[in-house]
């Protein structure tokens, strides 16, 4: 850990950030990540001219990410000189703004509720708010599949990857990871507009996610059908387009003993995606099962960090 803090202190900081997130959830107005998204959108419009050139994409990434990370690091370092408690509180607040455990629950469980009540139009509408695929004609199983996939993948992106980089570099580390992940979600598409401009955003996010994604996949496997999760991870992950989403979703699907992946419609075109997992196709109740897997994994991570802190006290 780069902060020089004990594991027990880090465990307390992480628990405090998770508790704040569970109690208050996302800030409804003026959320920092929303503001960052607006900033990134303006930068892309100005710099992504003619949709060519990796250099502009690299410059845009550096322009919108590095100043924010630098300021968060300078502020926490300055506060540490004044009083360590002020710095620790700032690290917790930064983690609270970056982690999204309750957000996953608040966005995904209403989809499961709508499916349970047979309200397919509402379920499609809610699903369309969290995924980039076309949801206007999705069936119940396709909605369930999209919901479970989103929970498993964003469990890594919004929770476990954030916690990993918080352990490495505190609040500024969590900020760096979440900003990089946000830019990948905005710019990391393999279409004409972003193929070159978004190359840096996609590759940087891949690098930052390399270790967290595999720790997440391992955690999913431990807490579910371990043997099946391991087999799906080994056999299926390499066929997925994302080097990090593949292990996470393959292991998660195997842990839940369900089948995910397959064709989906993006921007009016069918994208042929490899199969993930094994067993019956996902149904509405599997969204709640996926949420339980993510929440149990969060508890596991906090427990492991606390135990390490106790043994290194």
From TrEMBL:
One of its GO terms (molecular function) is ABC-type vitamin B12 transporter activity. It is a multi-pass membrane protein. InterPro entries: Cobalamin_biosynth_CobD/CbiB. Pathway: Cofactor biosynthesis; adenosylcobalamin biosynthesis. It is found in: Cell membrane. One of its GO terms (cellular component) is plasma membrane. Converts cobyric acid to cobinamide by the addition of aminopropanol on the F carboxylic group. NCBIfam families: cobal_cbiB. This is Cobalamin biosynthesis protein CobD. It comes from Oxalicibacterium faecigallinarum.
